[in-house]
Structures are given as structure tokens and as C-alpha cells.
Amino acid sequence: MVAISQRAQGLGTENAFVVLAEVNQLIREGRDIISFCIGQPDFPTPANIQDAGVKAIREGKHGYTASAGIPELRQAAADYLNRTRTGIHVDANDVVVAAGAKPFIGYSILSVTDYGAGDEVIYPVPGFPIYESQIKANGAVGVPIFLREDRNFGFDPQELADKITPRTKLLILNSPHNPTGGIIPRKDLEAIAEILRKHPQIWIFADEIYGQLVYDGAFESIASLPGMQERTIISDGCSKTWAMTGWRLGFAANKKLAPFFTNWITNTESCASHITQWAGVEALNGPQTDAQRMHDIFHKRRDLIVGLLNKVPGISCKSPGGAFYAWPNVTEACKMTGCANSEEFRKRLLNEAGVAVLADIHFGPRVPNEGQHIRFSYAASDEAITAGIARVAEFIRKNS
């Protein structure tokens, strides 16, 4: 009898898409749902970028490109990284382009760990669920490091030092962070770098896809610190900053690993879409007025949703420093409504109040002694945010 591999059966998923399917089914059934579950800008791609894509189609940019990407995009990405991260120098040859930034999670693990050898990858929890699923699928050992609410959803660098072993090969950092919106402060980055200098075998995967959506202070990359760039895989892309999620365009930069990433791409996707790559050149090199406008709107929405959530009985919410996610603590709200945990609270919000969110368990195991949390993506209009939080407050009032 034909069988399915344990690897395939154990592969994790991204629950935002699972919940989105539930939401879309309810909408098809005629339900009125306000959705905060999917993490993508609710704006159209800027017109100049759309025009660049159309121009590429009209000019016959329909074929394969080099697996690493067209030279114009690799140069544009290098220039962008150099101007948005202080103190680094990225050459175009250090940059590799893929169909989104997500593939580089797997390519990085594949490139620096060996299957079944006991190589360890330290990753944040809560965190983007693909970190954990790719660690497992590629035969490495995942070592979670817990993010704490009293540290604005960061971790104590000493906890990192305690988790490092001779088998540690990769540390995943995500700042600004999905799902909490937290930012690793400069002092913590410096402490992390100091720890890593004692462990030269450890690579860093710096997931910086939300790096241009920072609202409090300036964006900081660990690659900017002395001795860190050569061992840091800088991962970024066009999806969030320029509202290009469906175009699928990401890039990573590391001089030593670039040839290996290129080879992985040759083995998997061949190359990113030729058309999309030319649109990406325009995104990176063209006017940034629309990107700044979207940033400013997200900033205002952040203040709106945090203010509203903190007025709801049983809910408290830290102000996230970046991205477009709020991560409120709903421990008391769960007790008030008789919900056993955040997942039951999430399901009842969806089915009884018509509000779609994600629960903390969609982002890894619940952090010990940290209570219950849910995630809102505030990539939604002011009207949707106001109406959605009003529904949450009414749900708690009716069921308390």
C-alpha cells in the first residue's frame, strides 16, 4: 500500500490561511464578518509599480531569469539594504531573489544544518509558525525562546545564552515581530551580539520583512553591529512595505551563503517571476510616497486599535512598536465569558460576534505563565477597527 511520509504528515501550516478559509466560508453563507486574521496590507500596490509590471509584460519579459534574479533587481535590493541599515555594505552579488521572503527560512535551515544530526535552531515563540515547521521538516532540532509581555514581547538575552549549546547552528530573530508587533531594542541587539561573539558557529537569520513599518524610534538590524553582517542572513522583501503580497517577491543577502541559496532556488522554483522582478525594481528604486503614506496610516491605526482595546473590560494591550499586529492579553476576558482559553475565545468571537482573529496557539505553544492572547491584524480600515472592537466589547458584556 502506498504511504505518506511522516515528514509530510507532520508538516505545520500557517493558521492565518486556515482561519481565512473559515471566514470566507461564513461570508459565502451570508454572515457579516469583520476580519482581522490575515497579515497583508489592505491597500492596492502603488500605481507606478503596477505600471512597471504591465510594461514588463508588454516588453516580453516572460521567460526564465538567472536563479539569483535579474542584475537590476539584485543591485536595487543591495542599494536598498545599504540605505536602510546603518554601517553595512551589501554587494549585488550577495543578494538572491526568490518568490517571496518565506522560502529563505527553509533555504537557510537547509544550508546551515544537517538532517538528523541534532543541529539546533533557536526560534522565537510566539512566532511565525513557518519557523517551527521548517525546522522540523528539514531535520533540525527546534529550541524555542519565549517572548515575554513584560519585556514588550522580547526575550532576556541571558535566556539566549543559557539555551546555546555546541549543537546550536542558527538563531532566528524577527524584528518588528509577527505576531506581537514587538521590536528588539538596540541594547538587547548589542547584548545578543556580544553573546554570539563567544559562539562563532552560530548563524543568524534576521527576518526583517517589517523593517520599514516601525513607529517608535528607528529600525535597527543586528547586521549593523560589529562582526555580525558576515554571519547574518538579512531577509526582506516587497510584500509588506509596498503592498505586494500576491506578487511574491523577496530577497536575502549574505556573501557566503548566496551561491547556496541560488542553488536551492535552481532546485525548487527555478527563479522568481520575471515580470514581478521588474515591478520590484520600481518598488525599490521608484518614488516612496505611497510606501510612506501606508506607513503613516498603519501608525494611526495602531494608536486607534490599541486605544480601543484598552477600553474593553478584561482586555489589556501593549502598544506594538512596528508591523501591523496587536497582541492583546485576554486572560480576564476569557474568565469573564467562561472561555477555557484564547482558542475558545477566538472561536466564539467568530461565530457569535462575527469578528475573526487568531489565537496565541496559532503561533507556537502558549508561553508559560504569560496568560492568554489573541492577534489582530490592523490592516483594516478605521471603520472596520472601530466596529470590530465594539463587537468584541459587546460580546464580553453579553456573556459576562
Walk me through this protein's architecture.
This protein is of the alpha/beta class. The chain has 2 domains: 6-44 and 290-399, Aspartate Aminotransferase, domain 1, CATH 3.90.1150.10; 49-285, Aspartate Aminotransferase, domain 2 (3-Layer(aba) Sandwich), CATH 3.40.640. Helix content is 40%, strand content 12%. Helix 3 (47-58) runs antiparallel to helix 10. It is globular, with a radius of gyration of 21 Å. The mean pLDDT is 96.
Chain-wise SSE layout:
Elements: H1 6-9, H2 15-28, E1 34-35, H3 47-58, H4 71-84, E2 95-98, H5 103-112, E3 120-125, H6 129-137, E4 141-146, H7 157-163, E5 168-174, H8 186-196, E6 203-207, E7 232-237, E8 250-253, H9 258-267, H10 274-285, H11 289-309, E9 325-326, H12 331-337, H13 342-353, E10 355-356, E11 358-359, E12 374-377, H14 382-399
Parallel strand pairs: 1-10, 3-4, 3-5, 5-6, 6-7
Antiparallel strand pairs: 2-8, 7-8, 9-12, 11-12
Helix pairs in contact: 3-10, 4-10, 5-9, 11-14
